[in-house]
Amino acid sequence: MQFSESLINWYSINKRSLPWRETKDPYSIWLSEIILQQTQVKQGLPYYEAFLSEFPTVFQLASADESKVLKLWQGLGYYSRARNLHAAAKYIVNELNGRFPSTYKELLTLKGVGDYTASAIASICFNESAAVVDGNVYRVLSRYYGIDIPINSSKGTKEFKTLAQELIDKKDPANFNQAIMEFGAVQCKPHSPDCTICPFKDSCEAFNKNLINQLPVKIKSAKAKKKYFNFLVFISGDGKTILEKREGKGIWQNLYQFPLMETEAEMDFDAFKRQIEAHEFAKDMPFELSLYNEKSVVHKLSHQHLYTKFWIVNVESLKTEGVSIEKVDQFAVPILIGNFIEAFSF
């Protein structure tokens, strides 16, 4: 098919040199695909290299403590990816005797692996004709064919997958999949793509009908909720602080944080001090309170925006065992807290 041939030809000339393109090892490809979910290449590359250095094989990843995996992941966000990565590694080692699944259907049994990731690994490592559909692919296909079906609708998901499967080069699925993703990443960009140098400009519906900025179509998600987080950074006379492990489900599951007080709105100094006086860690004990950041740090997540303040609470001693201040940077924490730790320098 002309589209596939032209795309692969473009890729052979314009592809970026990336380490995961130099291998067919399913472990390495799987690792890169998980890291690059919702993460740009320039941000994900150092993490890919760090993980391969620390865990060269799936056996070493499986045997690692989860806290070590989460610490290495720190800063990438969407920590469920790291937890799923670790769980899948254990499954491969313990249930599959270290043999990596080699088909699209088998790959879907791995925790954290969906249609896109299974298709990428199956095609790149095992030459299976399984078409990938990610944000880049949606954008390329919707523009080229002038498709205005919302990409985040059930109908859109089904139709774009069907179209991609029809277009994939059955003889060279690995290069086709990588080509269409690369084309979306470096040529058919989300904003202001340079269509004058595009090899498809003469046949692209969006270009010829001036619809580049209107495609792809996406149903708007619900407005993000505002939450107000107040972290209590205790500092005792003997150089200790308090870190708590987040239990239960949630984006920061099994990560550590300073004691958290969530309020309905931002509070002034005096009102918040009264709140702390009733807090279990500071009740009936003298303390000195100071606010580290007058202006809230806004941490934006997909479904909520966290307006965050860090309150420094100096006490003679802690009511709990505590953690040595010198060891705080060894714990896996959300990047929001990691940035504070780095800036505050205790």
UniProtKB/TrEMBL annotation:
Residues 35-186 form the HhH-GPD domain. It comes from the Bacteria. Binds 1 [4Fe-4S] cluster. Its cofactor is [4Fe-4S] cluster. It catalyses: Hydrolyzes free adenine bases from 7,8-dihydro-8-oxoguanine:adenine mismatched double-stranded DNA, leaving an apurinic site. Keywords: 4Fe-4S, DNA damage, DNA repair, Glycosidase, Hydrolase, Iron, Iron-sulfur, Metal-binding. Adenine glycosylase active on G-A mispairs. MutY also corrects error-prone DNA synthesis past GO lesions which are due to the oxidatively damaged form of guanine: 7,8-dihydro-8-oxoguanine (8-oxo-dGTP). Belongs to the Nth/MutY family. This is Adenine DNA glycosylase. It comes from Seonamhaeicola maritimus. The lineage of its organism: Bacteria, Pseudomonadati, Bacteroidota, Flavobacteriia, Flavobacteriales.
